[in-house]
Amino acid sequence: MKGMRLVLALLALSLGGCGDGSVQSPDFTSGLVGLKIDPASVPQATVALGDSVQFRALGTFSLPPGTSPSTNDTEERPVDAEWSVSPTTRATITGTGLASTLSQGNVLVSATVSGATAQAEFTIGAPVLRDIVIQPSSANIPLGGSQTFTALGIYSNSSSPQPLDVPATWTSGNTSVVTVTPATGTSTSATAIAQGSTTVTATVVSNGQTLTEVVPVTVVNAALTGILSVEPPTAAVVAGASTVFTAVGSFSDGSTATLPDSSINWTVTDDLDTGDVATLTNGADETPGVTATGNVAGVATVTATLKDSVASSTTNRSASAELTVSGTLCTQNLRASQGATVGTDISGLCIGCLVDDEVNIIDNDDTNFAGVLVPVGLLGAGVSVTATAADSVTFEPGKRAGFIIGRPGSELLSLEALSALDVTTLLDGQVVESSSALIPLRLTLLGQVIIGTQGAILSIPTTQPYDAVRLSFSSGLASALTRTNVFNACAVVEEEPAAMRSQTLMRAN
């Protein structure tokens, strides 16, 4: 009897260790009794185009009787499902339930497990602005110039910048360096006011969020905008003489300046279509200007063009000037080889007055000269040089007579600067006509007669025969002339063409 009780007790303990003391069937199988999708609906039922939504399938399974304290005897847990979306033109979904949006509209999501299907819906709305960028991301603006900045958006449906659908507000970090106009819009123009560094900021408010982007800006030296002109715009020389042309550039700050030859290609054409009227000689690369030398009578066009390597902000990359070349105006020189002689005279108390190499005035070399210096002296003092033709040679009136003179370097060559000079014609040693006696004195600019020396013909008209010409340099208490070079004595001077620059002075008697 005791043995039977022990067996029954052990059996009771064995059954009591399962299911909280309840009695369960040893062959029970749990089954799927329900299926749903989480989330069943997306918050606000809207997803921005380009965003993704993670779904999961939750299965409800039956439990053995007595397993759960609840009356349902079921539990809910995630399950693997077969996922699909409709329509597939609006979204795709992965095997793990991650839905990606393709286009706006309503989408139905389905999950299938063991023949059971659950569904959920969501709506794809317009793309949402996530961030902004400014293009360009930095800028060096030349003084006086401007730079356009554009704000672009990074939207939920694209990783690359797109045009904004809302305006930006633009500000400058330092308005004394850069100003921005307009202050509102998708783009603005930043204008450089002064050299320095600052920032340009774009601010956008969209969907309740404020987005800001900042770019650095540096204002640098003014930039070349183009060639404004070639100076002088017109010039005239005699054959054998030369003049200098320079190219003038315009800059972003409104200034102008002479451009170095390293920036310029110089070319010359002419009305003869031969290229023989004038030739060009460049100086050093950083020396502004080109020397144009007249060869034969004609009109040449001298053109300056920016080199391809030189940037400019406009299409004004070239400009031209006109050079008129005339035949020699001094058609009959007084030459020693033809029997001419030269003499000098210093009159009065002319302190430091001198004439050197006077024979150069009548030699056959037109590039050398006599030097005449008349510093300070008493009234009535001065220096003169007289070139006389060979015996029995007399020149008929009706033309002009004078001298080719020059001033060294960049000294001014004008009648005002040479007001102490006079030209006189003589016959048998006697004065015939003179610019000091109501005869008009004319200064005709020739250009550079030799490198570094501007040349001119100083002449008077003749109405009576003559056989000599004299150039006089008068001194005075206020006179302080620098050196004057005398190249040639011209017994006959032709009238210059209209293109040549000349000045006429009538002395008071």
UniProtKB/TrEMBL annotation:
The keyword Lipid biosynthesis does not apply. InterPro entries: Big_2 (IPR003343), Invasin/intimin_cell_adhesion (IPR008964). Pfam families: Big_2 (PF02368). SMART domains: BID_2. Keywords: Signal. Residues 31-123, 128-213 form the BIG2 domain. Residues 1-19 form the signal peptide. Residues 61-82 are annotated as: Disordered. This is Ig-like domain (Group 2). It comes from Hydrocarboniphaga daqingensis.
